[in-house]
Design the sequence.
Protein backbone atom coordinates (compact mmCIF):
# COMPACT_ATOMS: atom_id res chain seq x y z
CA UNK A 1 0.00 0.00 0.00
CA UNK A 2 1.27 3.47 -0.87
CA UNK A 3 -0.08 6.77 0.38
CA UNK A 4 0.39 10.52 0.31
CA UNK A 5 -0.32 12.49 3.46
CA UNK A 6 -1.16 16.21 3.43
CA UNK A 7 0.42 18.62 5.88
CA UNK A 8 -1.57 21.23 7.81
CA UNK A 9 -1.75 23.48 4.74
CA UNK A 10 -2.97 20.91 2.25
CA UNK A 11 -5.80 18.47 1.67
CA UNK A 12 -6.19 15.37 -0.48
CA UNK A 13 -9.80 14.60 -1.36
CA UNK A 14 -12.02 12.79 -3.91
CA UNK A 15 -9.68 9.98 -5.03
CA UNK A 16 -10.65 8.42 -8.37
CA UNK A 17 -9.21 5.56 -10.40
CA UNK A 18 -9.82 3.77 -13.69
CA UNK A 19 -8.46 0.56 -15.23
CA UNK A 20 -7.62 0.67 -18.95
CA UNK A 21 -7.96 -2.14 -21.48
CA UNK A 22 -4.21 -2.89 -21.24
CA UNK A 23 -4.72 -3.50 -17.48
CA UNK A 24 -2.78 -0.37 -16.52
CA UNK A 25 -4.26 1.86 -13.84
CA UNK A 26 -4.75 5.62 -13.71
CA UNK A 27 -5.32 7.40 -10.42
CA UNK A 28 -5.84 10.96 -9.26
CA UNK A 29 -7.17 13.02 -6.35
CA UNK A 30 -7.92 16.65 -5.55
CA UNK A 31 -4.79 18.23 -4.06
CA UNK A 32 -5.54 21.62 -2.52
CA UNK A 33 -4.35 24.05 0.08
CA UNK A 34 -2.29 27.16 -0.36
CA UNK A 35 -2.78 27.42 -4.12
CA UNK A 36 -5.34 26.61 -6.79
CA UNK A 37 -6.43 22.97 -6.45
CA UNK A 38 -5.05 20.60 -9.05
CA UNK A 39 -5.16 16.92 -9.89
CA UNK A 40 -1.97 14.95 -10.52
CA UNK A 41 -2.40 12.04 -12.93
CA UNK A 42 -0.52 8.85 -11.95
CA UNK A 43 -0.14 5.58 -13.88
CA UNK A 44 0.66 2.05 -12.71
CA UNK A 45 1.62 -0.81 -15.02
CA UNK A 46 2.04 -3.44 -12.30
CA UNK A 47 -1.35 -3.63 -10.65
CA UNK A 48 -0.76 -0.69 -8.34
CA UNK A 49 2.55 -1.81 -6.81
CA UNK A 50 4.41 1.21 -8.23
CA UNK A 51 3.21 4.49 -9.71
CA UNK A 52 4.65 7.15 -12.01
CA UNK A 53 3.50 10.76 -12.35
CA UNK A 54 2.23 11.71 -15.82
CA UNK A 55 0.82 15.24 -15.67
CA UNK A 56 -1.30 17.68 -13.68
CA UNK A 57 -4.82 18.88 -14.41
CA UNK A 58 -6.92 21.45 -12.56
CA UNK A 59 -10.43 20.89 -11.19
CA UNK A 60 -10.82 17.22 -12.13
CA UNK A 61 -13.31 14.85 -10.54
CA UNK A 62 -14.04 11.76 -12.64
CA UNK A 63 -12.17 10.05 -15.50
CA UNK A 64 -13.28 7.88 -18.42
CA UNK A 65 -11.54 6.13 -21.34
CA UNK A 66 -13.33 6.17 -24.74
CA UNK A 67 -11.95 5.28 -28.18
CA UNK A 68 -8.26 5.90 -27.30
CA UNK A 69 -9.16 9.19 -25.57
CA UNK A 70 -9.15 9.82 -21.84
CA UNK A 71 -11.64 12.37 -20.55
CA UNK A 72 -11.60 13.98 -17.12
CA UNK A 73 -14.83 15.46 -15.79
CA UNK A 74 -15.05 18.07 -13.06
CA UNK A 75 -17.03 20.79 -11.32
CA UNK A 76 -15.67 24.12 -12.56
CA UNK A 77 -16.01 27.49 -10.77
CA UNK A 78 -13.61 29.48 -12.94
CA UNK A 79 -16.18 30.90 -15.39
CA UNK A 80 -17.43 34.27 -14.08
CA UNK A 81 -20.78 33.68 -15.82
CA UNK A 82 -21.52 30.58 -13.74
CA UNK A 83 -21.43 29.92 -10.01
CA UNK A 84 -20.45 26.38 -11.01
CA UNK A 85 -20.77 24.18 -14.07
CA UNK A 86 -19.79 20.66 -15.12
CA UNK A 87 -17.02 20.43 -17.71
CA UNK A 88 -14.44 18.04 -19.11
CA UNK A 89 -11.13 17.95 -20.96
CA UNK A 90 -9.74 15.28 -23.27
CA UNK A 91 -6.29 13.81 -23.91
CA UNK A 92 -4.83 11.06 -26.07
CA UNK A 93 -1.43 10.98 -24.34
CA UNK A 94 -2.19 12.09 -20.74
CA UNK A 95 0.33 14.92 -21.15
CA UNK A 96 -1.45 17.53 -23.27
CA UNK A 97 -5.10 18.37 -22.58
CA UNK A 98 -7.70 19.85 -24.88
CA UNK A 99 -9.90 22.89 -24.22
CA UNK A 100 -12.51 22.98 -21.49
CA UNK A 101 -15.87 21.68 -22.77
CA UNK A 102 -19.12 22.42 -20.95
CA UNK A 103 -21.18 19.32 -20.12
CA UNK A 104 -23.89 20.86 -17.91
CA UNK A 105 -24.21 24.63 -17.54
CA UNK A 106 -27.23 26.81 -16.79
CA UNK A 107 -27.87 30.47 -17.56
CA UNK A 108 -28.90 31.15 -13.96
CA UNK A 109 -25.68 32.00 -12.09
CA UNK A 110 -26.91 30.46 -8.84
CA UNK A 111 -27.78 27.12 -10.49
CA UNK A 112 -24.75 25.05 -9.47
CA UNK A 113 -24.72 21.52 -10.91
CA UNK A 114 -22.10 19.37 -9.21
CA UNK A 115 -20.47 15.96 -8.78
CA UNK A 116 -20.20 14.35 -12.22
CA UNK A 117 -20.35 10.55 -12.21
CA UNK A 118 -20.62 8.58 -15.47
CA UNK A 119 -21.42 4.99 -16.44
CA UNK A 120 -21.78 3.09 -19.73
CA UNK A 121 -24.94 1.15 -20.65
CA UNK A 122 -23.89 -1.50 -23.24
CA UNK A 123 -27.37 -2.61 -24.46
CA UNK A 124 -28.21 0.98 -25.35
CA UNK A 125 -24.70 1.92 -26.48
CA UNK A 126 -25.17 5.06 -24.41
CA UNK A 127 -23.58 6.79 -21.47
CA UNK A 128 -25.35 8.24 -18.45
CA UNK A 129 -24.14 11.16 -16.34
CA UNK A 130 -25.64 11.86 -12.92
CA UNK A 131 -25.20 15.09 -11.00
CA UNK A 132 -26.73 17.05 -8.17
CA UNK A 133 -28.55 20.23 -9.14
CA UNK A 134 -29.25 22.83 -6.44
CA UNK A 135 -31.74 25.09 -8.15
CA UNK A 136 -33.35 22.24 -10.08
CA UNK A 137 -36.97 21.12 -9.90
CA UNK A 138 -37.59 19.73 -6.43
CA UNK A 139 -41.13 18.48 -5.82
CA UNK A 140 -40.10 16.48 -2.76
CA UNK A 141 -38.14 19.14 -0.89
CA UNK A 142 -34.73 17.78 -1.94
CA UNK A 143 -32.25 20.65 -1.86
CA UNK A 144 -29.88 18.98 -4.34
CA UNK A 145 -32.11 16.83 -6.60
CA UNK A 146 -30.30 14.35 -8.84
CA UNK A 147 -30.52 14.81 -12.62
CA UNK A 148 -29.27 12.68 -15.50
CA UNK A 149 -28.62 13.26 -19.22
CA UNK A 150 -27.78 10.36 -21.57
CA UNK A 151 -25.57 10.44 -24.67
CA UNK A 152 -24.01 8.13 -27.26
CA UNK A 153 -20.61 9.64 -26.38
CA UNK A 154 -19.30 10.62 -22.94
CA UNK A 155 -18.00 13.78 -24.57
CA UNK A 156 -21.38 14.98 -25.90
CA UNK A 157 -23.50 15.43 -22.78
CA UNK A 158 -23.84 19.13 -23.60
CA UNK A 159 -26.31 18.14 -26.34
CA UNK A 160 -28.50 16.05 -24.01
CA UNK A 161 -31.37 17.12 -21.76
CA UNK A 162 -31.12 16.61 -18.01
CA UNK A 163 -34.00 14.73 -16.36
CA UNK A 164 -34.74 14.57 -12.61
CA UNK A 165 -35.11 11.16 -10.94
CA UNK A 166 -38.44 10.73 -9.15
CA UNK A 167 -40.16 7.69 -7.58
CA UNK A 168 -43.60 8.17 -6.04
CA UNK A 169 -42.77 11.67 -4.87
CA UNK A 170 -39.29 10.71 -3.61
CA UNK A 171 -36.14 12.17 -5.18
CA UNK A 172 -32.51 11.21 -4.59
CA UNK A 173 -30.68 14.14 -3.02
CA UNK A 174 -27.01 15.17 -3.31
CA UNK A 175 -23.69 13.46 -4.11
CA UNK A 176 -25.05 10.84 -6.56
CA UNK A 177 -23.20 7.82 -7.91
CA UNK A 178 -24.24 5.63 -10.85
CA UNK A 179 -23.30 2.17 -12.13
CA UNK A 180 -24.83 -0.33 -14.56
CA UNK A 181 -25.26 -4.10 -14.20
CA UNK A 182 -26.28 -6.68 -16.80
CA UNK A 183 -28.61 -8.16 -14.17
CA UNK A 184 -32.24 -7.07 -14.30
CA UNK A 185 -33.51 -7.79 -17.80
CA UNK A 186 -32.71 -7.05 -21.44
CA UNK A 187 -31.49 -3.54 -20.60
CA UNK A 188 -29.79 -4.54 -17.36
CA UNK A 189 -30.19 -2.16 -14.44
CA UNK A 190 -29.03 1.41 -13.92
CA UNK A 191 -28.34 1.86 -10.20
CA UNK A 192 -28.07 5.27 -8.51
CA UNK A 193 -27.07 6.12 -4.95
CA UNK A 194 -27.45 9.45 -3.15
CA UNK A 195 -26.59 11.06 0.19
CA UNK A 196 -29.97 10.90 1.92
CA UNK A 197 -31.18 7.33 1.40
CA UNK A 198 -29.93 3.90 2.39
CA UNK A 199 -31.99 2.64 -0.56
CA UNK A 200 -30.81 2.73 -4.17
CA UNK A 201 -32.75 4.04 -7.17
CA UNK A 202 -32.90 1.67 -10.15
CA UNK A 203 -34.10 1.73 -13.75
CA UNK A 204 -34.49 -1.42 -15.87
CA UNK A 205 -36.08 0.36 -18.84
CA UNK A 206 -33.06 2.04 -20.38
CA UNK A 207 -33.40 5.20 -18.33
CA UNK A 208 -37.02 6.00 -19.19
CA UNK A 209 -38.02 8.81 -16.79
CA UNK A 210 -41.21 7.14 -15.53
CA UNK A 211 -39.59 3.75 -14.86
CA UNK A 212 -37.43 4.48 -11.83
CA UNK A 213 -37.80 2.30 -8.75
CA UNK A 214 -36.44 2.52 -5.19
CA UNK A 215 -35.20 -0.52 -3.27
CA UNK A 216 -33.91 -0.95 0.27
CA UNK A 217 -30.32 -1.97 1.05
CA UNK A 218 -28.54 -2.77 4.30
CA UNK A 219 -25.96 -0.02 3.76
CA UNK A 220 -26.43 3.21 5.78
CA UNK A 221 -26.90 6.49 3.96
CA UNK A 222 -23.78 8.67 3.69
CA UNK A 223 -22.30 11.57 1.78
CA UNK A 224 -20.74 10.70 -1.60
CA UNK A 225 -21.52 6.99 -1.19
CA UNK A 226 -19.97 5.06 -4.10
CA UNK A 227 -21.04 1.93 -5.99
CA UNK A 228 -19.20 -0.81 -7.87
CA UNK A 229 -20.42 -3.80 -9.90
CA UNK A 230 -17.87 -6.62 -10.10
CA UNK A 231 -16.97 -7.55 -13.69
CA UNK A 232 -16.85 -11.29 -12.93
CA UNK A 233 -19.90 -11.19 -10.68
CA UNK A 234 -22.42 -8.76 -12.20
CA UNK A 235 -25.02 -9.65 -9.55
CA UNK A 236 -22.73 -8.32 -6.81
CA UNK A 237 -23.09 -4.63 -5.94
CA UNK A 238 -20.54 -3.06 -3.61
CA UNK A 239 -21.75 0.00 -1.68
CA UNK A 240 -19.06 2.08 0.05
CA UNK A 241 -19.72 4.98 2.40
CA UNK A 242 -18.80 6.67 5.66
CA UNK A 243 -19.97 9.93 7.23
CA UNK A 244 -22.81 12.30 6.45
CA UNK A 245 -22.28 15.83 5.16
CA UNK A 246 -21.52 18.32 7.96
CA UNK A 247 -21.80 15.50 10.47
CA UNK A 248 -20.37 15.97 13.96
CA UNK A 249 -19.69 12.28 14.55
CA UNK A 250 -16.69 10.47 13.08
CA UNK A 251 -18.23 7.45 11.40
CA UNK A 252 -16.31 4.38 10.16
CA UNK A 253 -15.93 3.45 6.52
CA UNK A 254 -18.83 1.08 5.73
CA UNK A 255 -18.71 -1.47 2.92
CA UNK A 256 -21.53 -3.80 1.90
CA UNK A 257 -21.79 -6.27 -0.97
CA UNK A 258 -25.39 -7.09 -1.86
CA UNK A 259 -27.13 -9.21 -4.48
CA UNK A 260 -28.65 -7.02 -7.20
CA UNK A 261 -31.28 -9.68 -7.91
CA UNK A 262 -32.32 -9.70 -4.26
CA UNK A 263 -32.18 -5.90 -4.04
CA UNK A 264 -34.50 -5.49 -7.04
CA UNK A 265 -37.01 -7.58 -5.12
CA UNK A 266 -36.88 -5.38 -2.03
CA UNK A 267 -39.49 -2.78 -1.19
CA UNK A 268 -38.48 0.84 -0.77
CA UNK A 269 -36.52 1.59 2.37
CA UNK A 270 -35.63 4.88 3.94
Sequence:
Amino acid sequence: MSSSSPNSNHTILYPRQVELSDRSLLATASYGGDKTPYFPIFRSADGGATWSWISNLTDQQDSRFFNTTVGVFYSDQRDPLHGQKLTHQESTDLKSWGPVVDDVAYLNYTARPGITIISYIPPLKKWILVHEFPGGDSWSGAGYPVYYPMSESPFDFRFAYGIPIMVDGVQPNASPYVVWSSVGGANGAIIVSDADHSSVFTNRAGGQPDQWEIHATSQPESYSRSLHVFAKYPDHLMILGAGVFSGTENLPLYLSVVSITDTLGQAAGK
User: Anything to note?
Assistant: The two ends are 36 Å apart (CA to CA). The domain at 113-264 is CATH 2.120.10.10 (Neuraminidase). Residues 238 and 257 are 4 Å apart (CA to CA).
